[in-house]
Please model this.
Amino acid sequence: MAIDRFGRRIHYLRISLTDHCNLRCIYCMPEGMTFHPYAELMQDDEIFIFTRLFSGLGFDKIRLTGGEPTLRANIVKLVHGISHTDGIRSVSMTTNAVLLSKLAGPLAEAGLQRVNVSIDTLDPLKFKQLTGFDNLENVWKGILSAEQAGLGPIKLNVVVVRGFNEPDVVELARLTLQHAWQVRFIEMMPFAGKTDFQTGQMVTAAETHSLIENAMGRLVPVNDQTLDGEARRFHLPGALGTIGFIYSVTAPFCGSCNRVRLTADGVLRLCLLRESELDLLTPLRNGASQDQLRTMVLEAVYNKPWGHALAQGEIPLNRVLNEIGG
Ligand code: SAM
Ligand code: SF4
Model:
């Protein structure tokens, strides 16, 4: 079992399947981004080896992310292999849903249980402004296909960006009246390549909460505000779904953190917002044994940082988010 020096049990692995993406979200990818060549990314068999390694250490929950995970060749086969690994109980995916209308059924059949879909506006023009592409219709179809395929409860991720989509949060929150979805509003986090924009245009979750309450009335807390993953949840009276707020910057959930990440190039990232990392792919390719890799992982996890230090001005600058996986 993997436990860190603060006593947190770490059993949730997020795997970035690629740094490539079919969108260019304004808060995510720097302009002129160069991508890893395919050979530098974890290959399918290497992903399966790492999945077995981590499940052997008590990891039972996996989220596939990126870049855009649905762009990965053999994505259905990968999901099948991961979800049929001994000890893995839950496999989910974070996706922009552009390709999901075709893939939702096959992915569900392969063993995918849930998706989180990123959608920051319901306005096609703003969608293009925020993502660089005219693709809102496909995303919407993707969400509906995911629901039909049983990949629920559907969670929608909204990054709120000052000067772009603050007014849109109300329409997005309103979706929960008709749909049993969780619409989650996320504070924009700073990484390399876009730091000034990410810090300058960040809207706090508290501000988003007020924007929604001012337009729609009081939000009712759900579950005494116990965190659902990383979200504090509320609902509108009579709504089928819930509204979540993720205070990733202003009030992070580090105390209950149970996760680490594997970047697309096979590096273990111990905290999203800290630079500390451990390369696993190079030793694997150089012939390290499973025992050696296990020892390396356990030691790195033990030393997992407590949490971020954004308030002290420490911004992680060694990677951009689409390499790490959100
Ligand atoms: N391409 C997929 C997607 O967009 O859902 C998966 C990868 S994306 C990096 C994962 C999540 O991170 C998305 O929900 C995205 O909105 C979020 N994200 C990207 N950049 C962010 C930032 N600077 N701060 C907070 N969330 C961010
Ligand atoms: Fe691509 Fe997701 Fe980043 Fe948007 S947030 S550019 S969809 S990886």
